[in-house]
Write a structure and sequence with these properties.
heterotrimer, A mainly alpha (314), B alpha+beta (588), C mainly alpha (327), A: 314 residues, B: 588 residues, alpha+beta, 26% helix
C-alpha cells in the first residue's frame, strides 16, 4: 500500500522572510485530514458493508409502505389470522389480522425515528456541555459533572413510567425524550475527556491569547477536534436507543399501542414464541441488523479517527 | 475472509435454529376442537363433574399463583385478591359453595342446614355440623360467627382499625346469637339482605382471642385481633390455624406456599395429596413454559390464542375454557357533553357490531363465545332474561346503521354518513375518546373495531390507551371497555347502576330504575329479585348506558395425572373442592 | 487521593438526595397507589377503608410533608409504607439485593474471562479469520436485545429438556420447588437454574468488554517497549504474558467497575424472563403498582452503587496510570 504523500517538493528558491508564498512548479497535492480519515474508513470492510445494509434497510422501511398494499393498522380484508408467512403475506399475519410486513415496516420507521432523535439530543446537548465543562475546569467543572451524575443515577424506568402515564399522546416522542435526556451525560463525559487532553495544547492557548471567548473556543476549536469521539459516541447512542426502546417496550413502558415499534412488536409476540415464531423473530432480526450495522460503522469510525490501533492490513 | 467468518456464524445459527424449530413444529392455526382438550370432552356439558375420578393417596401438586402474597388475611382490603383467596380456601370454611355451573349449594361439611326461617325480619338459622372443629381442637361455634360479623360490620371496629374489603351484608345484621352449645346460630337482619348465602367465610374466634390478648370485644380488642390476623404473612410467617381440609406448612416469601392436609379435618372427603405447593410466578407469559417443562401442574392464566395453541400441543396436559360471571362491556360516560344525549348513546350502541368484535377477539380460541344480553344474570341461570335484543343494540348491520342514522337525523344531528362528520345541534363535531388498558391486545382490537363502526355514523373515535383502570373513579373517560366480575349473588349489582352508586362510574341516573333497583336489592325471594332487576335492566338498556359484550372465558390447564380439579369460573375458583384433588388412581 | 475520595463521597450525598426528590416528584405524577389498587373492584371497598389506606400512605399530606416524613423515617430505619402491609422495605430490598448479587457475580466472572480471552486472541492475530469471527460474534451479541437472547436461550433449553427427557435446565427461579433431596442434587439443581440467566447476562456484557480489551491490547502491542522486547528476541509468549497482559488489563479494571455499576440496573429483564426474585423484579413491580417508597429505596441503593462504581473506576484509573493526577 503506497504511503500517503504529504511532502511538497520545492523547485524554486525558498520564500523571502517576512511572508509571501512559496512558488512551486509542480507539487504533489497534500491530502487533507478528512480524506485520510475517509480512506481509513473505507478500508474497514464490515463498516462499508454495514453502511450499504443500513441504507437499504432505511429505504425499505420508508419507501416500502408506499408500494405495499396493506397498511399497518388495517385488519386485512381476507380475514387471515395468525397465518404463517406465505405469498399473500410475506411476513404472515398476527393475532388481530394485521399484515405483519406492514407492521414491521412501521415499527422500523418508529424505532429509527427514536434512535435518530436520541442521538441528536444526546450529541447536541452532551458534546458542548462536556467541552465547556472540560475547558473551564475547576469548581464549575465539578458542579457540572455532578449534575451529570445526578442524571445518570435517576432510574430510566421511573422517568419513563411517569411520563408514559401522564401523556398518552405521542409515545414515540416521549420514549425518545426520555432516552435522550437521560443519555446525554455519557456524551458529555466522553467529550470532556477529550477536551481535558486538548486544552493543554498550544492552539487553545493561542486562541485565548487572541481574545477568543469560551464559546468560540468550544465550537471552533475543541469540538471539531473531538469529532471522532463525538461521532463514535453518536453511533453508540443510536445502537443504545434501539435496544433501549426495545427494553422499555418489553417492560410496558415504551411505545404504546396503537402506535408500534420493533420493541413493542416483539413484546406483543412474547407469548407466541412457540406458536407463531415469525411474530417474535422477524422484528428481532431487524433490531439486530440495525444495531449490528451501526456498531460496525462506529467501529469503522473509531479505526478511521484513531490510527494508533491500525497496522498495515494484509 | 468475509465468507470465513460468516460461514462460522452461519453454522452456529443453523444449529440454534434447528433446536428452536424442533420444538415449534405443530399446528399454529386456532381451529382446534371445542373449548376443552380431548381428555376432558364431558366438561362442557357437565362442568360440576369435569375430570372426576377415584384417587390414590400421595402426590404433590404444583399450582401457579400470579400475585405476590401480602398477608393471608383475605378479609383485609389490600389482601383480598383472587390468588390469596384460592390458597385460603383450603383453610377457611364457608356455609355455601359456588359450583362450576354457577349454582350455589350448601356446604354439608360445615353446616347440616342453613335456612331462611323468616322474611320479616329476615332471619337465617345455621346448624353447624357437630364434628366441625378448628385444627387446634376448638369446635366451630356461634362465637366464630359473632366474631366475623363484628369485625366486618363497619361499626364495632372503625375503618382505620379494621380496613376490611367490604362490610356489605354484615352491616345489615341486627343480632347473631348462639344456642345448643353454640352449634345453632340465629342471624337476624335489620334490613333485608338477599345475598346472605355469601356471608360467613369464617376466621377463627379463638385465634382472634389470642391475638386480642383476652376479650375480643373489650375496647381495642377487635383492633388487636385484626392486626394479629393481618400480621400472618409478616411477623407471623403464616396462619397456624385451619378449619378446612388443608393447613399451611411453609411459606417462602415471594416464592411459594406449601399446604399439607389438616389432621383434624372433619369433612366427608379426606385429602389424598401429600402436598399442594402454590408457586408464585409473576409473569403470566412464563406459565406456559413452566407447564410444558413440568415445573407447574395447574395454571389458570388469562387465555388467549397463543396460550390455547401452546397447551393444545402439550402431551400430558388437559385444559378447559368455561364461561364465567366475568363479563366484558362498553361504557358511555353520561356526563360527557355529547353522551349526555340519550339519542346519541342509543345510536352508538346500534352501530356497534358485537358479533364482529367477538369473532375477532375471543372466538378464535373460544368457539362458544356469544353476545351477552343481560347486565346482572348469566345465561343458564334462573334469573337470566334477554334485555338487549329487543332494543336492536349491538348488531351493527346495515339495518341498524340506517336506524341509527334516522334516530340522529330526527334529533337535530347532521352528517351521520360513513366517512362524514357527525355534528350536533350546535354544530359541534362529535369526537370521543375510547379508553382501554393498553397491555390488553383483545381490548385494543375491540377499540379499533368500535372506531371503524362509529365512523359509519360520522363519529370520530380516538384511541386512548391507559396503563391501568385508575381513571374510572374520577370519570376521566368518554367511552371505555373493561370487565366486571359478576357473581351468583346478584344483590350487590345495585351499586353499579343506581344513582350515586359507588361503582356507577358512568354517573348514570334514572329515577324509575332507582326505585326498582332499591327494591330488588332487598327482595329475599330470588324470583322476585330477578323480576325487579330485569325490569330495571330493561329501562337501562333503553337508556343505552352499558353495552354488554361477552362473558370472558376462564381457563384452566391441568397435568393429566391429577383428577377432581376442574375449572370453576366463579370467584371460588378451582380451589372450591380442594379436598377432592388427587392423583388419578391408575396414574404412574 | 484520600482527599479526592472523601470529597467525591461527600458530593455523593446531595446527588442522591437530589435524585430522590426528583424521583419522588416523578412518582407523584401518575395516579396514587391506593386508587390503582382499588380501581374497578366490585364491590367497591367501604369509603372508610379507602380513607384509612390513603392515610396510611400519607397521601393526605402535602408533597413536601410527605417527602420530609420519608427523610425523617430513614434515620429511624423506616423506609416508608408499601402496599403490602407486612412489608419492611429495607429487609425486603436487602433480600432481593442478595439474589441479584448472586446472579451478577457469576455472570461478571464469565463475562470478564470471555472478554479477556477473545479480546487478547483477537488482538494478537488482528484481521485474521479468528479476529473477524470473534468480532462479528461479539457485535452480534452486543446488538441483541436482552430479552431476545434470554427468550432464545429459554426456548432452546426447554426444547432440549423435552427432547432428551431430562429436567436439567430450570427456567423458573433460582431453584426448583420442591427442592430435591440430597446435597449434590441440590447443587445440580441450583446449577441448572443458574446456567441460563448467567449465560444471558454474560453474552451481552462480554462483547463490549471484549472490544475494550482488544483495543487496549492493540495499543500495548504497538507500543515502543513491546517492540523493543521483540527486537531483543524474546519469544512471543513471554512478551505476551510478562509484558503486555499486565498493562493491557489495566483499563479492564476500570471497565469492570463501571460494568458492575450498570449491571445492577440492568438485570431487570433477565430476572423477569427467568423469574428470579431480584432487585430488578422488585423495582419494576413497585413501579407498575405505583408503590413509590419501594422505588425510592431501590433508587437510593442502586444510585449509591453507581456512584461508588464510578468513583472506584476513577480511582483505579489514577492509581494504575501514573500519568493521571487528581488535584
Amino acid at each position: 500500500m503506497p504511503k500517503t504523500q504529504t511532502t511538497k517538493v520545492p523547485t524554486t528558491a525558498p520564500a523571502q522572510r517576512g511572508g509571501g508564498t512559496v512558488e512551486r512548479e509542480f507539487t504533489v497535492a497534500e491530502r487533507k485530514q478528512w480524506q485520510l480519515i475517509l480512506r481509513r474508513f473505507t478500508r474497514h470492510r464490515m463498516a462499508m458493508v454495514s453502511i450499504i445494509v443500513l441504507v437499504l434497510l432505511i429505504l425499505i422501511a420508508y419507501v416500502g409502505p408506499h408500494f405495499w398494499k396493506y397498511s399497518a393498522t388495517e385488519i386485512t380484508p381476507d380475514h387471515a389470522f395468525r397465518s404463517a408467512p406465505n405469498l399473500a403475506h410475506p411476513f404472515g399475519t398476527d393475532d388481530a389480522g394485521h399484515d405483519y410486513m406492514a407492521r414491521v415496516f412501521r415499527g422500523t420507521q418508529q424505532s429509527l425515528k427514536i434512535a435518530a432523535i436520541v442521538a441528536l439530543l444526546s450529541t447536541t446537548i452532551g458534546a458542548p456541555y462536556g467541552a465547556i465543562s472540560g475547558l473551564i475546569g475547576g469548581k464549575v467543572d465539578a458542579i457540572m459533572m455532578r449534575l451529570c451524575d445526578l442524571l445518570l443515577v435517576l432510574p430510566l424506568l421511573v422517568v419513563a413510567a411517569a411520563l408514559a402515564s401522564s401523556h398518552s399522546g405521542d409515545t414515540v416522542l416521549i420514549v425518545a425524550l426520555v432516552l435522550g435526556l437521560l443519555g446525554w451525560p455519557v456524551n458529555a463525559r466522553q467529550v470532556r475527556g477529550v477536551v481535558l487532553g486538548l486544552r493543554e495544547q498550544e492552539f487553545v492557548e493561542a486562541a485565548r491569547a487572541m481574545g477568543a471567548g469560551t464559546w468560540r473556543i468550544v465550537f471552533r476549536h475543541l469540538l471539531p477536534n473531538a469529532t471522532g469521539t463525538i461521532l463514535v459516541q453518536a453511533t453508540l447512542d443510536i445502537a443504545g436507543a434501539i435496544l433501549g426502546e426495545a427494553a422499555l417496550s418489553f417492560l410496558g413502558l415504551g411505545v404504546q399501542a396503537p402506535d408500534t415499534s420493533l420493541g413493542l412488536l416483539i413484546n406483543q409476540a412474547r407469548t407466541s414464541v412457540d406458536t407463531l415464531p415469525w411474530l417474535f423473530y422477524l422484528p428481532g432480526v431487524v433490531i439486530i441488523l440495525i444495531a449490528l450495522t451501526i456498531n460496525f460503522i462506529g467501529d469503522g469510525l473509531r479505526d478511521a479517527f484513531d490510527p494508533r490501533q491500525t497496522r498495515q492490513r494484509r | 475472509m468475509r465468507s470465513g467468518s460468516k460461514r462460522l456464524a452461519g453454522l452456529v445459527a443453523i444449529t440454534a435454529a434447528t433446536l428452536l424449530v424442533a420444538g415449534a413444529c405443530g399446528t399454529s392455526s386456532s381451529s382446534g376442537p371445542g373449548q376443552s382438550s380431548q381428555g376432558w370432552s364431558t366438561c362442557d356439558k357437565d362442568p360440576n363433574n369435569c375430570n372426576s375420578g377415584p384417587t390414590k393417596p400421595g402426590g404433590t401438586m404444583l399450582v401457579t399463583d400470579e400475585k405476590k402474597i401480602t398477608s393471608f388475611f383475605t378479609a383485609d382490603a389490600a389482601s383480598n385478591t383472587y390468588d390469596q383467596a384460592q390458597i385460603m380456601s383450603g383453610l377457611i370454611p364457608s356455609p355455601f359453595i359456588l359450583n362450576p355451573d354457577l349454582s350455589v349449594t350448601l356446604n354439608k361439611d360445615l353446616v347440616t342446614s342453613a335456612e331462611l326461617t323468616s322474611s320479616s325480619p329476615e332471619t337465617v338459622v345455621y346448624k353447624i355440623n357437630p364434628n366441625a372443629v378448628w385444627m387446634d381442637g376448638t369446635p366451630i361455634t356461634a362465637d366464630d360467627f359473632i366474631f366475623n360479623w363484628k369485625f366486618q360490620d363497619g361499626k364495632d371496629c372503625s375503618a382505620t382499625d379494621c380496613p376490611v374489603a367490604g362490610t356489605t351484608g354484615y352491616d345489615a345484621i341486627d343480632t347473631v346469637t348462639g344456642s345448643d352449645n353454640g352449634k345453632t346460630v340465629t342471624v337476624v337482619f335489620k334490613t333485608p339482605f338477599p345475598d346472605w348465602q355469601a356471608l360467613f367465610a369464617l376466621f377463627p374466634a379463638n385465634v382472634a382471642k389470642t391475638y386480642a390478648g383476652g376479650d375480643i370485644y373489650a375496647p381495642g380488642g377487635l383492633k388487636k385481633a385484626y392486626a394479629g390476623f393481618l400480621s400472618e404473612g409478616g411477623a407471623v410467617p403464616f396462619p397456624k390455624w385451619s378449619g378446612g381440609p388443608y393447613q399451611i406448612s411453609d411459606y417462602q416469601k415471594d416464592v411459594s406456599v406449601t399446604l399439607t392436609p389438616n389432621p383434624k379435618w372433619y369433612g366427608a372427603t379426606k385429602p389424598s395429596l401429600d402436598k399442594i405447593i402454590y408457586k408464585i410466578i409473576l409473569d403470566p407469559a412464563q406459565e406456559t413454559e413452566a407447564l410444558k417443562n413440568g415445573e407447574v401442574n395447574v395454571s389458570v392464566a388469562q387465555p388467549d390464542g397463543d396460550l390455547i395453541a401452546a397447551v393444545q400441543q402439550m402431551q400430558n396436559v388437559n385444559y378447559n375454557l368455561s364461561k364465567g360471571p366475568v363479563w366484558e362491556h362498553i361504557d358511555l360516560n353520561n356526563k360527557n357533553k355529547f353522551l349526555a344525549d340519550k339519542n346519541l348513546r342509543q345510536a352508538i350502541f346500534l352501530a356497534i357490531n358485537r358479533q364482529e368484535i367477538i369473532d375477532k377477539t375471543v372466538k378464535p380460541f373460544f368457539p362458544s363465545a356469544a353476545p351477552l344480553n343481560n347486565h346482572n344474570y348469566m345465561p343458564g341461570t334462573a334469573g337470566y332474561k334477554d334485555v338487549i335484543t329487543p332494543t336492536g343494540q349491538g348488531v351493527g348491520d346495515d339495518a341498524a346503521i340506517a336506524k341509527a342514522k334516522q334516530l340522529l337525523e330526527s334529533n337535530g344531528y347532521t352528517g351521520a354518513e360513513p366517512g362524514g362528520t357527525l355534528k350536533n345541534k350546535n354544530g359541534e363535531a362529535v369526537t370521543l375518546g375510547f379508553s382501554y388498558t393498553q397491555s390488553n391486545k383483545l381490548r385494543e382490537t375491540t377499540a379499533e373495531l368500535v372506531q371503524a363502526d362509529l365512523a359509519k355514523i360520522g363519529v370520530k373515535v380516538t384511541l386512548v390507551p391507559k396503563p391501568d383502570l385508575s381513571f374510572l373513579g374520577s370519570g376521566d373517560f368518554d367511552m371505555v371497555v373493561f370487565a366486571w366480575v359478576g357473581s351468583p349473588f346478584v344483590a350487590g349489582s345495585k351499586d353499579l347502576w343506581i344513582t350515586g352508586g359507588g361503582s356507577n362510574f358512568n354517573k348514570y341516573s334514572n329515577p324509575q330504575g332507582d326505585t326498582l333497583l332499591t327494591k330488588a336489592a332487598q327482595d329475599l325471594d330470588p324470583t322476585q329479585e330477578a323480576a325487579d332487576f330485569n325490569a330495571a335492566d330493561e329501562i337501562m338498556a333503553a337508556d343505552a348506558n352499558v353495552l354488554p359484550l361477552y362473558q370472558k372465558p376462564v381457563f384452566i390447564a391441568v397435568s393429566s395425572q391429577f383428577v377432581n380439579i376442574r375449572n370453576n369460573a366463579t370467584s371460588a375458583g378451582p380451589a372450591y373442592n380442594m379436598q377432592d384433588w388427587g392423583l388419578k388412581a391408575d396414574a404412574q | 487521593m484520600l482527599v479526592f475520595t472523601i470529597r467525591r463521597l461527600i458530593q455523593a450525598i446531595p446527588i442522591l438526595f437530589g435524585a430522590s426528590l426528583l424521583t419522588f416528584w416523578l412518582m407523584s405524577i401518575p395516579a396514587d397507589p391506593v386508587t390503582v389498587e382499588f380501581a374497578g373492584r366490585n364491590p367497591r371497598p367501604p369509603q372508610g377503608t379507602i380513607d384509612a389506606e390513603m392515610h396510611r400512605f400519607r397521601l393526605d399530606e402535602s408533597f413536601w410533608a410527605q417527602y420530609w416524613d420519608w427523610i425523617k423515617g430513614i434515620f429511624h430505619g423506616n423506609w416508608g409504607p408499601a402496599l403490602d402491609k407486612n412489608a419492611n422495605i429495607f429487609h425486603d430490598m436487602m433480600r432481593h439485593f442478595g439474589v441479584t448479587t448472586r446472579l451478577i457475580v457469576l455472570a461478571l466472572i464469565v463475562a470478564i474471562v470471555l472478554a479477556v480471552l477473545t479480546g487478547v486472541m483477537s488482538a494478537i492475530k488482528q484481521y485474521s479469520v479468528r479476529d473477524y469471527t470473534f468480532t462479528f460474534l461479539g457485535f452480534v451479541f452486543l446488538s441483541m436485545p436482552t430479552f431476545w437472547i434470554a427468550q432464545l436461550l429459554k426456548t432452546i433449553a426447554v426444547n432440549f429438556n423435552t427432547s432428551t427427557g431430562t429436567h436439567f435446565f430450570g427456567t423458573l427461579g433460582a431453584y426448583s420447588i420442591p427442592q430435591p433431596d440430597g446435597f449434590w442434587n441440590r447443587i445440580v439443581d441450583y446449577a441448572g437454574h443458574l446456567v441460563l440467566p448467567t449465560i444471558s447476562l454474560a453474552l451481552i456484557t462480554y462483547a463490549g468488554l471484549s472490544r475494550f480489551q482488544r483495543a487496549s491490547m492493540l495499543e500495548v502491542m504497538n507500543s515502543d517497549y513491546v517492540r523493543l522486547a521483540r527486537a531483543k528476541g524474546i519469544s512471543q509468549r513471554r512478551v505476551l504474558t510478562r509484558h503486555m497482559l499486565r498493562t493491557a488489563l489495566i483499563p479492564m479494571t476500570t471497565a469492570t467497575a463501571l460494568t458492575i455499576a450498570v449491571f445492577f440496573g440492568g438485570t431487570i429483564i433477565t430476572e423477569t424472563v427467568f423469574n428470579w426474585n431480584g432487585m430488578g423484579v422488585y423495582t419494576i413491580d413497585a413501579i407498575s403498582s405505583h408503590d413509590k417508597y419501594i422505588v425510592l429505596a431501590t433508587l437510593m441503593l442502586t444510585g449509591f452503587i453507581v456512584i461508588i462504581g464510578n468513583l472506584v473506576a476513577d480511582i483505579l484509573y489514577a492509581v494504575l496510570d501514573p500519568r493521571i493526577r487528581y488535584a
